[in-house]
Write a structure and sequence with these properties.
By secondary structure, the protein is of the alpha+beta class. 40% of the residues lie in helices and 17% in strands.
């Protein structure tokens, strides 16, 4: 059984490593907390599993260590930033602080960011919006890489192109939808490939257009691709989602796959809706609470697996891990050995004594 770790010690550990690699302290604090929140929610490919890669990006100059986004366009409800390849979690933290008062005043506020670095787990950003009673929509793409083919094709055009939405409901933490236009992610594919594992189902496609469950297909020459949502039967749905995300991110930001590549990163679009500026919180809750009850009270296929709302399991897992300790994926500690050897901080010191 994996060891348990204290969540605050993990944040301090990650922050110290990021600072040692040169990241400004205020930025490092936000990035560290965001990564640990990913693990708390159970998104362990987008939590501390990213820390080693972030550190390497800082060391090689792929991620900028200090600075601020450049405002390229600004209207009362709409902004466009150049993220200057600063850490995505830091930019999203700034974005929320900028958008929340605008949404409260105007009803809606939206921001696109070009040249952001990677933004980690999308669900993490939904939590603040839920706490403040907003509906948030967040989308991300990365024009610097491609691993998903358009439906009917065999050559990669898109990244998994995640999109997320969060909205409040009564008597619960809220609904958090964090999905991708592909069936699986690059992070999970890389993890399984390194471990010599295969997927349970055929979620990938070879370069010859054949279904496969072997992640090695992505690393073959020529490379295979991840299948879009819907797979071979209904992959037009994932294809449509991919195009939607491209339009929201690269299209609105004015930077995408037609431009020169700069390295691992993200193009981001985030929108906040003030519910009270529409029908009002009471009416919104009346509608969405009813739908939620229809879902969770639905007769399940398997009585031992009742219907859940998106995010319900993540909130439960987060609270359990805050109370009892964080269970990190076994691949995370080995991935940080080089950074620990270089900078002197130890993940093992974050373990909870039992």
């Amino acid at each position: 059984m994996n060891a348990l770790y204290d969540s605050q010690k993990l944040i301090n550990y990650a922050c110290n490593l990021l600072k040692a690699a040169g990241l400004d302290t205020p930025i490092a604090q936000v990035v560290a907390k965001t990564l640990v929140e990913g693990d708390l929610l159970g998104h362990d490919t987008h939590g501390l599993g990213l820390l080693a890669s972030y550190i390497k990006e800082l060391e090689t100059g792929g991620m900028n260590k200090s600075g601020a986004p450049i405002v390229l366009s600004e209207k009362p409800a709409v902004l466009l930033w150049d993220g200057q390849r600063l850490p995505g979690p830091w930019l999203l933290d700034l974005a929320y602080k900028e958008l929340a008062p605008r949404a409260k005043k105007l009803g809606i506020a939206s921001l696109a960011i070009k040249r952001s670095h990677h933004i980690a787990c999308l669900a993490v950003y939904l939590m603040q919006a839920l706490e403040d009673g907003y509906l948030m929509v967040l989308a991300s793409s990365d024009a610097n890489s491609a691993s998903v083919a358009p439906y009917g094709g065999t050559q990669a055009v898109f990244t998994p192109n995640p999109i997320a939405m969060g909205f409040p409901i009564n008597g619960d933490s809220g609904v958090m939808i964090d999905i991708s236009a592909s069936i699986t992610t690059n992070g999970m594919t890389n993890r399984k490939f390194k471990a010599g594992e295969k997927f349970e189902h055929d979620w990938l496609m070879t370069a010859q257009g054949k279904p496969t469950n072997d992640p090695a297909a992505i690393f073959a020459t020529p490379p295979g691709t991840l299948l879009g949502v819907g797979g071979f039967d209904h992959g037009h749905k994932g294809y449509g989602m991919s195009l939607m995300v491209e339009a929201l991110t690269a299209g609105l930001a004015g930077r995408g796959r037609v431009d020169p590549k700069e390295g691992w990163g993200a193009t981001v679009q985030v929108t906040l809706y003030d519910i009270n500026s529409f029908c009002g919180e009471a009416e919104f809750q009346r509608q969405m609470d009813h739908v939620a009850k229809l879902c969770i009270n639905n007769v399940p296929i398997n009585p031992s697996k009742p219907v859940r709302l998106p995010g319900q399991s993540a909130f439960t897992k987060r609270q359990e891990q805050l109370d009892s300790g964080v269970r990190l994926h076994a691949s995370i500690e080995p991935s940080l050995k080089d950074a620990e050897s270089k900078y002197g901080f130890k993940l093992s010191e974050c373990k909870i004594s039992v």
